[in-house]
Design brief:
Blueprint: H1 7-18, E1 28-30, E2 39-40, E3 50-56, E4 61-70, E5 75-79, E6 87-89, E7 93-100, E8 103-108, E9 123-127, E10 132-144, E11 153-166, E12 169-173, H2 177-183, H3 188-197, H4 205-217
Parallel strand pairs: 2-11
Antiparallel strand pairs: 1-6, 3-4, 3-7, 4-5, 5-6, 7-8, 8-9, 9-10, 10-11, 11-12
Length: 218
Amino acid sequence: MKNLITTTFILFFFIGIANGQYLNDLQGKPLSEISFTDVVGTPYLYDGWTKGTVELVNGTFYKDLDLKFSLFTDELFFKNTKDETMLAFVLPVKSFLLDFGAQKSLYRNGFPEVDNFNKKAYYQVLYDGNLKLLFKSYKTVSEIKPYNSATTEKKFAENYSYYILKDDLMVKIRPSKKDFLELFKNKSAEMDAFIKTEKIDFKKNQDLTRTFEFYSSL
């Protein structure tokens, strides 16, 4: 299976979408977009708007929204039907799905605190089972001094971490064959054969998801 989220969860999420509401029902707080004129790059996952669906904490779904996700502030914003300025959600967001056609990316919060991330932090859910694989991407501002220059330059730097969630415990993991075989050590022979046969690339989230799906099938 080549989607980033398991088929079962995609079906569950889209059932919510089918029963969802449209943008004109959604309340938002007007928000002027912050300009980072002195910083190179973008604070967002994607600089442009991306179509998606949002689930609020009260269980309401809103579909066909224009969304922007800030990896710098870990906040989600939307645009209203009048194409006005960015809006912040009045009610907290539980999860959101970004739609790229064949590829759909699910983000969710509410996970246990770990490292510098609290329960409000959004993670991309790469695999959603009893054992969850979560991807945390975030941006920071770094200062660099270009070669042969007397002045420094500010730049958005993207960082990321992977976590396993099992029994309400978050564990950081490296995306490597060694760490994954240790994680799946009760089926290490089968997993090792799968990794070799399928030529799993541990630098690709899609391939990491496939290893969890295969392990779940054993």
